[in-house]
From TrEMBL:
This is Pyridoxine/pyridoxamine 5'-phosphate oxidase. The keyword Cytoplasm does not apply. Homodimer. It comes from Maribacter flavus. Belongs to the pyridoxamine 5'-phosphate oxidase family. Binds 1 FMN per subunit.
């Protein structure tokens, strides 16, 4: 069985990324790009990002999660701390997150170190979630093998009854990670595969070094 995909070919022509017209602070540039994506048509979840970790088995693994906040410190997402990614991060906090916004012909690749956010931040975000999502976090021992879907549905029913008139407490195993970036690369598709790539690398004095990379 095979399928030849050699004819998938697209010229990227929407925009350009030039040193003299961008911020020299990558977090500021990320904010600008994110805003432009939000304003554009054709991206359902601009905050969906791929998170790659180095697993306990030595293999990298990538999965999509939702970015829930970013600021000058970094990028925050929420998950289960005992999931496969949680265990990977506990052993090796060096991770990579990336965004692909096809309608803008843009990609951003961020390398950084992940750390758990303060408990009160996780509490605040957990409280803001709909009750169904809160109970889902309680029910799911994320990444563990389960016998069937019924197991989840039954557990959810039990918990719905338990918390009918009560607030759902945030489980200890659920919370946020802050990814503090050490390098951020911006990629803008250009014609003839001569794409623009600008990489910012954090220096010892906390300044960012800006470099252009060959496409
Ligand atoms: C669009 C989308 C958004 C997702 N958002 C999250 C999220 O914010 N947090 C999360 O833990 N998993 C999220 N997931 C599920 C993850 O991709 C993944 O299945 C889960 O976190 C378990 O990953 P792990 O077993 O590698 O730890 C999302 C999946 C998709 C497709």
């Amino acid at each position: 069985m095979q399928k030849d995909l050699g004819n998938y070919r697209k010229s990227y022509e929407k925009s350009a990324l030039m040193e003299d017209s961008i911020s020299n602070n990558p977090m500021q540039l990320f904010k600008t790009w994110f805003h432009e994506v939000e304003q554009s048509d054709g991206v359902d979840e601009p905050n969906a990002m791929t998170v790659s970790t180095i697993g306990l088995d030595g293999f990298p693994k990538s999965r999509v999660v939702l970015l829930k906040r970013f600021n000058h410190e970094g990028f925050i997402f929420y998950t289960n701390y005992t999931s496969e990614k949680g265990k990977a991060i506990a052993a090796n906090p060096n991770i990579c997150i990336s965004f692909f916004w096809p309608n803008m012909e843009r990609q951003v690749i961020i390398k950084g170190k992940a750390e758990k956010v303060a408990e009160n931040l996780s509490d605040g975000y957990f409280e803001s979630r709909p009750k169904g999502s809160q109970l889902g976090a309680l029910v799911s021992n994320q990444s563990s093998v389960i016998a069937s879907r019924d197991v989840l549905e039954q557990e959810l029913k039990t918990l719905e009854a338990t918390y009918k008139n009560k607030e759902v407490p945030r489980p200890d195993h659920w919370g946020g990670y802050l990814v503090r970036p050490i390098s951020i690369e911006f990629w803008q598709g250009r014609p003839n595969r001569l794409h623009d790539r600008i990489r910012f690398t954090l220096q010892e004095d906390w300044d960012w070094k800006m470099e252009r990379l060959a496409p």
